[in-house]
Amino acid sequence: MSFQEKIEAVRTEFRAALDSFPNKPQEIEELKSTFLGRKGKVASLFAQMGSVDPSERPNIGKLLNQVRNDLTELFENKRTLGASNVGQKQQETIDYSLPGHQFRIGSLHPLQQTMDEIKTIFRDIGFSIAYGPEIDDDYHNFQALNIPKHHPARDMQDTFFIEDNVVLRTHTSNVQIHLMENQDPPLRYIVPGRVYRNEAISFKSYCLFHQVEGLFVDKHVSFTELKSTLTYFIHRMFGRDTKVRFRPSFFPFTEPSAEVDLWNEERGQWMEILGCGMVDPAVFESVGYDPEVWQGYAFGMGVERMAMLKYKIDDIRLFYQNDVRFLEQF
Ligand code: PHE
């Protein structure tokens, strides 16, 4: 091994030792003295200068000085870097003063919020909540509600048929029939759910939407009670200043019937939000309730329409596009 090679070997050895730089002050001092100390490896190289050919000495001397300076510098750098970690098991590089990760929190869909609010208000005044099938037979969606086959009233609701006698329900009124088939009066329910209509899609109509049905059956039920219940609901939902109007209308399953409009300030026009009326005796007959004994009222409200009014949304299609820029506003 030439003298130059010996020098390089010490340099290499020193670098390896630095890679596993110790933490304990005592070990650090040991490392320093092994290489750079009075009896260390570099010193011993200097001591061997005597055996070097005199003509080589100036060169080797220069090289040795350089190595000593290099190693000293490397050592000092490493020591100042490590100083802050002395006594720790690991050299951590976490900066605890940085702000933490932001987790994005989701929000309830505006339709869900509207539904929840409707449910709360009706629960407060004694209504229970029921659900029913979205795929139903023609009988429950139409016939039992006094809409016979080929009756012109079927045109009011463009129906999606699955089979001849099976439909996607066009309203939540089908659940009126299920409820009355399955229990004796009196009863007082609201029924939230999805409904489907094969309608031309526009800012105010979509092929699916949500309704909340209401049904109250008892011995002395009046239209006045229906009107005051709905007015109470609207005042709580939209505020006492909301302009409301009850307008005479027609549904085969209620008599008399009405529709309720709210004034839409943005559009400067009335917006229909629900249909209602006194349960038609023909409906009681189809579920086996005696129409001489029992009376009732029913209503069905459009949830999208109400959410649009409440949150000033001008297009029903926005509810179904799942655009986060829209959803995160609620
Ligand atoms: N089912 C009717 C509709 O979807 C609303 C309604 C329900 C009307 C109950 C009267 C009574 O338009």
Q: CATH fold name of the largest domain, please?
A: BirA Bifunctional Protein, domain 2
Low-pLDDT windows of residues? none
Strand order of the largest sheet: 1-5-6-10-9-8-7
CATH architecture of the largest domain: 2-Layer Sandwich
Ligand types: phenylalanine
Any descriptors?
330 residues, binds phenylalanine, 2 domains, 7-stranded mixed beta sheet, 21% strand, 3-stranded antiparallel beta sheet, rod-shaped, 10 strands, BirA Bifunctional Protein, domain 2, single chain, alpha+beta
Strand-helix topology:
Elements: H1 3-19, H2 25-36, H3 41-47, H4 57-83, H5 110-124, E1 128-129, E2 135-137, H6 138-141, E3 161-163, E4 166-168, H7 174-182, E5 187-196, E6 208-218, H8 223-238, E7 244-251, E8 254-264, E9 269-279, H9 281-287, E10 295-302, H10 303-311, H11 324-327
Helix pairs in contact: 1-4, 2-4, 5-10
This protein binds phenylalanine.
Residues 171, 173, 251, 254, 275-277, 298-300 line the site of phenylalanine.
